[in-house]
Fold:
Amino acid sequence: MDIVKIMKFGGTSVGNPDRMRALIPLVTDKDRKIVVLSAMSGTTNNLVEITDLLYPGNVNEASSKIESLRAAYHQVVHDLFATDPFRKTGHELIDSHFDYINNFTLRVFTKLQEKAIIAQGELLSTSLFHQLLQEREIKSVLLPALNFMRIDKDGEPDYFYIEENVSRELRKHKSETIIITQGFICRNVYGEIDNLKRGGSDYSASIIGAALKVKEIQIWTDISGFRNNDPRHVENTKIIRELSFDEAAELAYFGAKILHPASVNPAREKNIPVRLKNTMDPEDEGTLVTSTSKLVDYKAVAAKDGISVLRIRSDRMLMAYGFLRKVFEIFEAYRTPIDMITTSEVAVSLTIDNPQYLNQIAQDLRELGTVEVEKNQTIICIVGDFRTERVGSAPEIFLALNTIPLKMISYGGSPNSLSLLVDSSDKIQALKLLSKHLFS
Ligand code: ADP
Ligand code: ASP
Ligand code: MG
Structure:
C-alpha cells in the first residue's frame, strides 16, 4: 500500500500531554500515512541554550538547565500516560535521553555534539507519541529519520539517497497505517547527526512527501491557515484559502513563519498539494497550496528581519560592462546569497541575510568603489498580481507607506511579488499600514 499523505505536527501541536492526546483522532483515519513530529514547543530552544553554555565550558549552568528540562519531561510522562507500566517505560526513556545529553558535559564541545544534543527534542517527542499510541493499543511504527534523511556536502537534501532509503525502510512495514518519524533531524554527508535548520520539520515533511509522491502534504500548526499578514504583529489578519507554490514559497522565504523557507520546493517539484491545518480547529479547511491559484491584486504581506544592505558606488560603473560580475563574484567567493538588488548607472545596492562574512565582503567590494553598509534592515514582501503587463498595481502600496522611508524597491523581478526594504524599526508600522490600505 502506498503512503497517501504526510501529516506534520509542529511544536505546539505536541506541546503538552493534552495536545498529544488530541492528535490521536487525527492520525487514526484509514489512510496509510507518515506522521512527522517536531520537538515539543520550547524544547529546541532549551537545547540550543544548553549547547550555548557548553561551548564556553559553562558546565554547571548547563547541567542545571539539563536537569530542569529532564524534570519537565518526567512531568510530561506522568501526565501523558494512564498506566504504570507505560509511565515506567516513559521515565526510563526520558532518563536515557538526558543521561546521553549529560555525557557531553564531560567532553570537549564541538559542532558534532551540538547537533546530537539538538536532535534529542524530536527523538523524545516521537518516542513519547509512539508509546502513547501503544498504550491505547493503536498500531503504529516508529521509523528513525536518521535511517533515511540525509543532506549532501552543500547541506541540500540528498533526494536520491532519501528516496531509496525511506522506500526500503517502509517495505519492512507494509501493513502499518501510522508511521511516525522525526522532523528536522538528518545525517550529513559524513554520516553525522545534523539538521535542516530551525523550523526544518516542515521541510522534512515536504522532502519525504516528494520522495514518496504522496497525494497531500499536511502541515498542522497552531493557527488556521496562511494569513494575509503576520499575526504576531498585525490584528485581524485573514485566512488565504488558496496559494500557488510560487506565492507560498515567496511568503515563506520572506518571513512568514508558518512555513520553513525551503519547504515548498520539494512539493512544487513533484506537484504535490500542501495543506496548512490547525490542530486546535481541525474542522477548518485551512490553506491549500497548489500549482495554480486565483490572481488577486494583493494577497499577502510578509517581513524578513536581520537584513544588511551594501551600497556600492563607482564611476567605473558608468557605461561599463562586467562590473556587476565582479560584484557578484565577491558574494560567490563567500558563499553568501543576495536577496534583493537595485541598480542605477553608477551605484548598486544589494541585501544579504547572512552577516557571517559581511565585513570581508564589504572590504573586497571597496576595491570596486565606495561602500556603505547598513544593518538592522527588513525586507517586506507583498504578494499579489504584479505581472509586468498590468497597469496601476503599485500606487496603493506607495500611498500606504508614504510615511515610511523606503530604502530599496524591487519591482519586476517576480510576477507575483514586490519587495521593499525598510529600517527594522519601521517594520511593524509598515505591516499595519499595508494591512489597513490593501486588505481592509
Ligand atoms: P510550528 O511549531 O507548528 O511549526 P510555527 O511557530 O513555526 O509553528 O509557525 C506557526 C506560526 O507562524 C503561527 O503561530 C504564527 O504566529 C506565525 N506566522 C507568521 N506569519 C504567518 C502567516 N502569514 N500566516 C500564519 N501564521 C504566520
Ligand atoms: N524543533 C525544530 C525547531 O524548533 C524544528 C521545527 O520545529 O520545525 O526549530
Ligand atoms: Mg514551524
